[in-house]
Design goal:
InterPro entries: SinI_DNA-bd (IPR010093)
Protein name: Helix-turn-helix domain-containing protein
Strand order of the largest sheet: 1-3-2
CATH architecture of the domain at 1-44: Orthogonal Bundle
Distance between the termini: 67 Å
Region (Disordered): 56-76
Number of helices: 3
Oligomer: single chain
Order of helices and strands: EHHEEH
Shape: rod-shaped
GO molecular function, one term: DNA binding
Number of strands: 3
Biased composition (Acidic residues): 61-76
CATH superfamily of the domain at 1-44: Winged helix-like DNA-binding domain superfamily/Winged helix DNA-binding domain
Amino acid sequence: MYLTVKETAEYLSLPESYIETLIREKRVRTLFDGEQYLLYKEQFNTHFEQLEKMKKRMEEEANEPLPEDPDVKDED
């Protein structure tokens, strides 16, 4: 399924100007139909998968208990 720049911006919750920058820098694959650029929606699945993995990893690290430090001295 192909999306317009506007639809892609809404899908990714990003500004249209950012999507246009990605197109100009050729960081995303596009088709030009003579009037507008179309972006293949499935190319962003990897992006979302990576975001989910990173969120999960950050949550796991945040919930991991800190090991006791054997060199901790009582200050009293």
